[in-house]
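Quick bug: DUF4843 domain-containing protein output formatted oddly.
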Amino acid sequence: MRKKIYYTLFIMVVLPLVMAGCTKKELLKFDEAKLGSSIYFSDNYAKAAVTVNVISFGYLAANVTDSIISFPIYVTGSPSDSDRTYAVQFADTSTMTEGIDFDFYRAPVVRAGRVQDTLMLILHRTAQLKDTTLHVDIKLVSNASFNTAIPYYYSGSDSVSLLQCRITCNDIAGVSYLWTGSYKSTVVGYMGAYSLTKVQLMMAVLGLSSAVFYDSGSTPSIGLFSGWAAYMKNWLANEKLAGRIYYDENGNEITMGVYA
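Here's what came back:
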């Protein structure tokens, strides 16, 4: 199957917005000549919360193998005429491992002429994610180009780290509403018993979006159920003749329903 890279769909912030009335000017009252250029995660400042990106491959097609995730960063002071590398540390609290679960999508660099750029990581869809939620804790640290003289943003007694963020990742999804709602008997008749692996395979083979299975506002017609089931039944049969049999997460061969 052709490898695809899926751009992140699932982003959630887990701390409340508590910074009303503050402006960016308050953050940037620093003397560059004395302190140098500082770096921080701009989303943490804008949202007054440590950014947490939640990625679930479970809602994506079986042939999606990676996901790219982005964190905007900002540096104080003036733009440089040359690229400036910044330093990133992955904390010991992380359960994801660089080189196995994720890699840099591009080097951590603030490009020439910019004071804003993006930290980009690529997450890999590993087998462990099928039943385990993993995370990586990311921290910006000082190097020759940038310091971390602005570690927190304060509002009264509250503070928000501007140097840390987290990615949480798994390959888990809830049961599709098609197998639990009023369409249940029809869906089972055409597409057989529910399995997450079957849904992911159908998305890959038929080119369907996750909304078909997980957005109750886009319920397909019976005609579509019939067409999808017939196509998948024929596709699975041809694959089986070629020696490729597909099994679900419970070890059962993937089949369609009795009406297919």
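Actually, after a second look the formatting is fine. Residues 1-26 have pLDDT under 50 and may be disordered. Closing.
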